[in-house]
Amino acid sequence: MSVRKPNLIKAQGEAFKLNKRYACRKPGSLDFEDVAFALNVLVIHGGLKGAAARLTRNNKEGRIRVNSRIQQEGAKRFAIGHELGHWLMHESEDQIFMCTSSDLRDYHQSPLEAEANYFASELLMPTGLFRPMMEKSEPDLVRISEWAGLFRASLTAATLRFIRESKHDCIAASIKNGRVEWSWRKQDGRRVWLKSAQAVEPGSIAWEIQNGRAAPEQMEAVDSDAWFRHLPFKFSGEVQEQSIHMPQYGSIFSLLWITS
Fold first, then answer.
1. pLDDT 10s digits, 105-153
2. For the residues of the chain, what is the DSSP string, one character each?
3. 85-106, pLDDT tens digit by residue?
4. CA angle (142, 143, 148) in 5-degree steps
């Protein structure tokens, strides 16, 4: 049985229509809970374990529960947007969606989750507002963080959106307890990757931050072996890195830019 491909154009189009309906003309102006209520969906915070968010459908009414452990506003908004994507596009697929944190980063594996994520990303960061800001920009977590603030988005969501739309070849990674918790790479970029749970090694900015260094405000060149020693071939490309400490999550967030 073949798995259908995600209809990403439809997903973005549905979000575009909502932004247009509610006259979203400036970053961060759309209230997702008000939009949900207008669509007969009630948003409830708390009362959920084992998932980041859950959508339940009862005929024409729905409920979205958001895990109370999600504290950051941008992460809450993305979770709500993701479930609204399921609400609008996947009525015939299922009546209950339990979505984990990894589901909210899935743009490639599950067609349903990919569609919901493209929908949420477009609802949160409309192309007509986001693309003019980023299309001529080089990878820079300071700048991406500023965009995230404008759009009331999380740094993760803004970074993944930048990587998807940028011409630059980048990988984002979350580092926890000295190991890669998760990573996300540009699909049409160089065929290099990070392994899940691989150790952060000396020579990387992430390792230096882990050992007390202050986070740099711009990209710095690093030895590619600090990140890509595990590859089954010798990678000789040039790598730049910018990493920041995220104490609220007990993690380090890294952006790698493969420049050649």
1. 999 889 999 999 999 999 999 999 999 999 999 999 999 999 999 999 9
2. -PPPPP-HHHHHHHHHHHHHHTT--STT---HHHHHHHTTEEEEES---SSSEEEEEETTEEEEEE-TT--SHHHHHHHHHHHHHHHHH-TTT-SEEEE-TTGGG-SSS-HHHHHHHHHHHHHHS-HHHHHHHHTTPPP-HHHHHHHHHHHT--HHHHHHHHHHH-SSEEEEEEEETTEEEEEEE-TTS-S----TTPBP-TTSHHHHHHTTPPPPSS-EEE-THHHHTTSSS-----EEEEEEEETTTTEEEEEEEE--
3. 999 999 988 789 999 999 999 9
4. 95
